[in-house]
Sequence to fold (517 residues):
Amino acid sequence: MLHGDILGERARLSPDETALVDVATGERLSYAELDRRAAGCARTWLEALGARPGDRVAILSHNRPEYVEAFFAAGKSGVALVTLGTRLTPAEMADILTDAEPVAVLYDEAAADAVAELRQRVDVAHWVALDEPRGPGDLPYARERDSRVADRWRGPRVDPESNHCLLYTSGTTGQPKGVRISHRQVTWNGYNTMAGWGLTADDVSPIFTPLYHAGGLMAFLTPIFVAGGTVVLHRAFDVEEVWETIEREGCTVVLGVPTIWKMLMESPRFETVDLSHVKAFFSGGAPLPRYLIDAYQRRDVVFKQGFGMTEVGVNCFAMSNEESVRKAGTIGRPMMFTEVRLVDGDGRDVGDDEVGEMWFRGPHVCNGYWRNPEATAAALDDDGWFHSGDLARRDSEGFFTIAGRSKEMIISGGVNVFPAEVEGALLLHPGVEDAALVGVPDDRWGEKGIAFVVDRGAGASDDELAKFLAERLARYKIPKLFVRVGELPRTAYGKVVKGDLRRLWDERSGDSGEGAE
Fold:
């Protein structure tokens, strides 16, 4: 690959086709129009901000066309984009900015209060307002961009291994780390997803998940643009707006996380919305309960589960439409040029139907972590394998099923309990809305499993749940206790924050005097 300008290449081939539809304003941008804006953004960085290839520019904003412009400006300019989660506190944002040292921060009106506090915490040369400037000397983005819009502008040729963006991990298990996403990784993810999921120029996909996350930027945005299709951009997720958009725009492929699919299923429109144009729905970000698969399949929709992670690409597996039914509950088989090993604690390959940690190798893998050689060395070995920390099984046909995170595995009485397996069984019970299993210390068993359960309707008693699980799981896998909660703490992409649940257990057991059995 000679450069990272995916949008520029697509605009050269399909200049008049619709690239982006902004739900909030109704604006429809062709590839040529969006490419000109991205060129104006890239030139603003290089000319007005004095950035150079290898420098960083951060963005703090909700979804909007300017976010898309900034992402592709990184491909044009060689300046890496640093995305800031809108749900982070100013203190957390300040830690990221201190680590990344961007030359500028782009911000929207909703972030004005956070930016006011960030100005006191970090030293940033330029603040760029996507809306009205909120500070003296802040640059108005639209004016700067529009004065530099250019047709088919080519910036400096970028090294495929240089950083396209720094995406900071959610930090559910510790201090966030900046994942070094190279131009090579972005391109391979786009082409692999297009090929593995059969995307074409006729595809229309809504994006309602946040663009500050790898899933928003690279699960369908980049692959759809590689294919020449259309992205319909939502500011944020709204159930009725999403169903209306899917129907009105004739969306063909839709990606969400289990929490979103559940909310969409519970909408009154679920049973009547026109889905005749939908090729497939996709779920990722967290394990997918089987009852959700069944509900969408009853609407005669192809519903597939996938797997990916920021470090190895957000799409690593694929399956056919027929396999989505026959192999429901699996994540499919590895995509082309994606090597996956399942290994035990000693790094030895495990056999079929045995649980092992997934190791990945291929052109879709990141270059490690920004300014963190220790974390990079721990994750990427000398042979290029990325140690994911995710556990899975592989069946005799090569289909993978997620078993959980290695750090979440519970060793109770000397045997391994995989939370995803127990959670999946719990979610089959009609009285369970949501569930998560965590391990806590136990004097007798070493660890014991505590199930946090969100009731559906009248719910079910502990005895009923234990009996239900006993019909499906070995006795040692059944949780020792069930704890009712109103909802599970989740990240923006649907992952349960199990550290919060452990802290909740510590508080409850401390207050009540409950200890290990």
Notes: The longest helix spans residues 31-48. The mean pLDDT is 92.
